[in-house]
Amino acid sequence: MDAKELGLLGENMAVDFLKKKGFDIQDRNWRFGKIEIDIIARLNGTTIIIEVKTRENSHAGEPWEFVTRKKQRRIITAAHEYVIQKELEGDTRFDIVSIVYNSKYQRVEHIEEAFFPML
Fold first, then answer.
1. pLDDT at position 111
2. Is the N end or the C end of the chain the one with fewer CB atoms within 10 Å?
3. How far is it, in rounded angstroms, from Cα 57 to Cα 102?
4. pLDDT at residue 119, as a whole number
5. For 7-34, what is the mean pLDDT?
6. Domain enclosing residue 75, as ranges
7. Minimal CA–CA distance to 21: which of 112, 116, 113?
8. CB under 8 Å to 101, separation ≥6 — which residues?
């Protein structure tokens, strides 16, 4: 399985996982310019921006550790535009779904409020 296939598999796993937790999926792979938000969901009036990271193993680090501060800033920029375009009200939070997936092992970890916009 190549990296693109693994990423798509991870995003599909994340959507299934989040739906089971009651999340209402609003958008997937939403783009603002060159920036992409993997999943946008709503739960209890809150807009949740979700970055999905999938790896075959965690030898080089947990998947969530690869969401760099630069990547976070880009996601925050796109999320700001999404909220404006959709005229959303209420809180917004930023989560990460970290997935390790291979033929012998699967693990999904949901990190709520994984990062915050910097003022």
1. 98
2. C
3. 7
4. 54
5. 97
6. 3-115
7. 112
8. 6, 9, 10, 13, 54, 55, 56, 107
Residue 109 token pair: 């970890």
C-alpha–C-alpha distance, residues 26 and 40, integer Å: 5
Structure tokens at 2: 């190549």
CA 4 – CA 10 distance, rounded (Å): 10
57-101 tens-digit pLDDT: 887 888 999 999 999 999 999 999 999 999 998 999 999 999 999
Mean pLDDT of the chain: 94
Q: How many domains does the chain have?
A: 1
Yes or no: say if 41 and 96 are a contact pair by the CB < 8 Å rule.
no
For the domain that residue 66 is a member of, what is the CATH number?
3.40.1350.10
DSSP character string of 36-53:
EEEEEEEETTEEEEEEEE
